[in-house]
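Retry 2 of 3 after timeout on previous attempt. Resubmitting structure tokens to design endpoint.
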């Protein structure tokens, strides 16, 4: 069996994620305190009490990373280890954590900064994103290349691609993609044109902070969003994380690479079933098991045993 730990991106966050782990083990409660310090936010309140902040990008990012890293540690402590890892956008930071390249504290602190930089990169209301269902990448790229200010942002799975950019340009592309035969084009509720060249400045700013981060040697390979390549050399990480902010997320290509590597089981670490949905439409031969609670780990141990 070849196992990949895969991590979701922003959008799956929910109040209460990882709470059962924290209540049942003092090690995970200590991680919450560490995360509060790293992100300069009360992570107990953010994760476990009803609040609106959890859906604000600069808080969503460290909150989701905290929850996913706690669940990762619970998996590792149960003796379940990955052979390779990948994360969708924000999830790449969790991948770097499980691979040994980023400390927990750095992963949380960096994603708080990343969230803030991404939110502030473009004035509110000037950028947007839209999901395009039922068209191939070639057709979408053909349409967007003729409209200034819009680009593909996420290659999620066959027939589902997200576009990003300036609001007017995205709206124009939505109309043209509908005319080109898209089954559905839906504007997303996002606070900015993420994964577009408009965020290059945010990536550069993040790069300044990354200069002072000490990356550990990779214990297992991880797949980078920016180029869907298997990374084993820690010297590449900084540039890839900088590029990731303003580059398309090549998730569909990453799943094909995992399949080529011989991965037969993906453990989706964290809330939601986003990864499972993309895997089913891209590489259906790979089994996906979601882990978001201690019960999920018990069940997984039963299946693996």
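Retry 2 succeeded. Sequence:
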């Amino acid at each position: 069996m070849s196992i990949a730990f895969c991590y979701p991106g922003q959008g799956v966050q929910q109040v209460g994620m990882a709470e059962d782990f924290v209540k049942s083990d003092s090690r995970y409660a200590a991680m919450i305190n560490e995360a509060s310090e790293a992100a300069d936010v009360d992570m107990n309140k953010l994760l476990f009490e009803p609040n609106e902040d959890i859906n604000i990008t600069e808080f969503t990012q460290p909150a989701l990373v905290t929850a996913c890293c706690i669940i990762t540690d619970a998996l590792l402590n149960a003796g379940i280890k990955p052979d390779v890892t990948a994360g969708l956008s924000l999830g790449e930071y969790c991948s770097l954590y499980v691979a040994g390249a980023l400390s927990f504290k750095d992963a949380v602190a960096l994603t708080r900064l990343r969230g803030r930089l991404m939110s502030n990169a473009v004035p509110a209301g000037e950028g947007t994103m839209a999901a395009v269902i039922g068209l191939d990448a070639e057709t979408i790229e053909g349409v967007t290349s003729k409209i200034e200010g819009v680009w593909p942002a996420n290659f999620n799975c066959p027939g589902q691609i997200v576009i990003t950019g300036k609001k007017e340009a995205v709206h124009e592309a939505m109309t043209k993609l509908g005319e080109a035969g898209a089954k559905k084009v839906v504007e997303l509720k996002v606070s900015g044109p993420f994964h577009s060249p408009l965020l290059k400045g945010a990536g550069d700013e993040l790069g300044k902070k990354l200069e002072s981060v000490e990356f550990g040697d990779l214990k297992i390979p991880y797949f980078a969003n920016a180029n869907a390549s298997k990374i084993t050399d820690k010297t590449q990480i900084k540039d890839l994380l900088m590029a990731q902010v303003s580059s398309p997320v090549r998730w569909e290509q990453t799943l094909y690479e995992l399949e080529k590597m011989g991965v037969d089981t993906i453990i989706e670490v964290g809330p939601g079933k986003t990864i499972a949905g993309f895997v089913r439409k891209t590489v259906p031969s790979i089994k996906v098991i979601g882990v978001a609670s201690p019960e999920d780990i018990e069940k997984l141990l039963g299946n693996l045993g």
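Attempt log closed. Strands lie at 3-7, 84-87, 127-133, 150-157, 160-166, 184-187, 222-223, 230-231, 265-269, 287-291.
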